[in-house]
Amino acid sequence: MSVKARLRARARKKARKQKKSKGSFLRKKVCRFCADPKAEIDYKDPKGLRYFITETGKLIPMRISGNCAKHQRAVALGIKRSRQLALMPNAPHHGN
Fold first, then answer.
1. pTM for the complete prediction?
2. Which of 38, 65, 77, 86 is the most exposed place for a label (fewest CB within 10 A)?
């Protein structure tokens, strides 16, 4: 690890410590598919899967979306299948 990387890591650690000492409480995100058993991941439903991709077409990671590992894998598979059938775009729209 380079010197700069160590300094950045130390600064991040210090910032986390200060934030923690202030009393800010970070609530753990809950997987929406675990919370609601009726919600299902379906590759034929591109509108439902759009919540899990960015405007540039990348998958949103589970630490941001709040999905558990099991459902994040299913979401990724659903998005890939949907792209394969051309229900969802692989890339954002190119210039006109």
1. 0.69
2. 38
Residue 56 buriedness (CB in 10 A; 0-12 / 13-18 / 19+): exposed
How far is Cα 75 from Cα 43, in angstroms, rounded to an integer?
Answer: 8
Scan for tokens 């009393």, then name that residue.
23
Q: Alpha helix locations (H) across 3-45?
A: 3-22, 32-35
Domains located in the chain, CATH noted: 25-96 (4.10.640.10)
Instruction: Name the token pair of 88.
Output: 């969802």
Conformational region of residue 2, where left means phi above 0, alpha means psi within -120 to 50, and beta covers everything else: beta
State pLDDT tens for residues 23-82: 666 677 889 999 998 999 999 999 999 999 998 889 999 989 999 999 999 999 999 999
Token reading at 40 = 């299902």
